[in-house]
Amino acid sequence: MSARKIIIDTDPGQDDAVAILMALASPEEIDVLGITAVAGNVPLSLTSKNARIVCELAGKANVKVYEGCDRPMGRALVTAEHVHGETGLNGPALPDPVMTVETQHAVDFIIETLRSHDTGTVTLCPLGPLTNIATAFTKAPDIIEKVQEIILMGGAYFEVGNITPAAEFNIYVDPQAADIVFKSGASIVVMPLDVTHKVLVTKPRNDAFRALGTKVGKAVAEMTDFFERFDKEKYGSEGAPLHDPCVTAYLIAPDLFSGRHINVEIETQSELTMGMTVADWWGVTERTPNALFIGDVDADGFFKLLTERLSRL
Fold it and tell me: pTM for the complete prediction?
């Protein structure tokens, strides 16, 4: 089979960085057409910069990076420096990028790319708030039917919220955008906290990254050393969950994951539960299923795959 063509939409973020590295290390399965940056974990100027830093860390300075939306569709921007540090990539000391940002807006790149490819041949991989994707769908609704699949990290059901009691960060930042995407009719696969909280970077797993003895291995180990402090304190867990690399791993080895095709609605009205992913896991409504909601993962298989791919860079 030929490599799957994808656009990575991202707000790096240490876990975004690992997801990007894993994708760039997997050319047999994944053809990265471009990386689109969005405001989320940190403001747009930093997410754009961080995407380029990661490409250069991977030795893939030929990958094109586009800047997208600098704020959510209908709300003020909420960021997560308390988790990721003021740069979004705190941990390793990485040089500023030499790469430049493309002049085309990310939304226009998404539209143009989908229009120029055959229907069902481009997959969108959002790792952050869905602002760029929803803006593209709103501006050019004809592209929705062109999308092969949307594989996104966001939401939660059993694990409820990580930024509010009810909402996961990516969906909470721009619930209006998420609502547009989930109602679009596109084929959607969701990596919620329910599955990402099962892929924890324990000390042996992080030692395995460091033991690669490469610049990439060391950087990934130092990234997780930094941001795991927040999750370990918050959840009392053995290590930090690697949320976004679940998207990349699913592209390469979907058999590592299992879930249910269910209806997912986004709360956009109540400030108490704003951004909640109301997932009909138990099938108690008659609402039409609109997403494959992933619930479980082979964590050991995930980390074996991730470590092997990082060793290639």
Answer: 0.98
